[in-house]
Specification:
Layout lengths: L5 H11 L3 E3 H11 L9 H11 L14 E3 L7 E4 L23 H10 L3 H15 L11 H4 L2 H4 L4 E4 L17 E4 L1 H9 L17
Antiparallel strand pairs: 1-3, 2-3, 4-5
Length: 209
Amino acid sequence: MKRRTWREEIYDAFVALGGDAQYKDLYEYLERNVPRYHESKNVKATIRAEIERASSDSDVFNGKEDLFFSVYGKGKGYWGIRNYTPSDKDPVDLTEDDIGFPEGKAALKKHLKHERNASLVKRAKRRFKEEHGHLFCEACGFSFSDTYQADIANDFIEVHYMAPISELRSDTKTKVSDLVMLCSNCHRMVHRYRPFITNRKDLRKILIR
């Protein structure tokens, strides 16, 4: 049986991680799932080289297969599959600011090692804009684009996962409909009021009537 190339292993790892990942998450996944990961002392350098040679975002692109792209620009250590098309059943990535809350940090970290998909948040924002025309807080109605300069406010909103992070399991699947749009202030208040918020209609309970 022909041995799989590192490029094939890396590509499949990105798919398993939701289409994009930081090097740290990619290394961890490959270490768990590819036996020959431990055969070389320079395996991490090999992985980085394979990605860069297969990406036109890199200075060492080989000009052949343009498989990967740099999600946040050169030197950020965050790569993804170019033209990746996720399904609606893809798992949730951390919802922008949830990692900043002490609630369920250990559970969230454990969950993200198994499932990661930054594109779900992007898809949730896109669907919300298609339905409402622009992004705004579903609790108080605040819109960043109506208040701040376009170059920093365009498409900005925090995305909140309705179910408590501490209840996530490794097999938890999240859909776009499970995410809600919140401004930074309401996002923090929703977390403080978490026990009383179980659906979208409850979001306004944080406001003074």
